[in-house]
Design a protein that fits this description.
The protein is about 20% helix and about 15% strand.
Length: about 140
């Protein structure tokens, strides 16, 4: 079940400008601080394991919270392109004759299924069924 998380708002104790740029200059007391995100201005923390990881790789302390970092990475993922398709079921098999159905799909033996839908699936040699025909085929 989907539900929105109940986010609590915390007062920040340090600004990202007050954190050293070089990880070698960052002290252990940064673990006790609530850092203000440079993007959304919400508070976030650095945990000990993260600080150790950053030190091992020589990476500076992040200036953005986890949500803002995720959003900035996610903007490089292309959005799906939806296209209108029709069910590829033609009675006993697929319309290309590539696949033979295992079950009856509710329409007569040689009739084409009339369901249409939008999908982001890129059809190559694969067969795309409507939900009704798919359920009858796999269940």
């Amino acid at each position: 079940m989907w539900r929105e998380l109940d986010r609590k708002i915390f007062e920040t104790t340090i600004n990202t400008n007050d954190i050293p740029d070089n990880i070698k200059d960052v002290q252990e007391d940064v673990l006790k601080e609530l850092i203000e995100c440079k993007g959304c201005k919400k508070a976030y923390r650095i945990i000990a394991m993260e600080l150790n990881f950053l030190r091992q790789l020589g990476i500076p302390v992040p200036r953005f919270c986890v949500d803002c970092r995720f959003a900035s990475r996610h903007k490089f993922v292309p959005s799906p392109v939806f296209k209108e398709m029709s069910c590829m079921c033609v009675g006993e098999g697929s319309k290309e004759g590539v696949y033979q159905n295992n079950n009856t799909h509710g329409h007569s033996a040689n009739d084409k299924c009339l369901h249409s839908f939008k999908t982001a699936y890129d059809v190559g040699t694969d067969i795309v069924y409507c939900e009704t025909c798919y359920q009858k085929e796999v269940l």
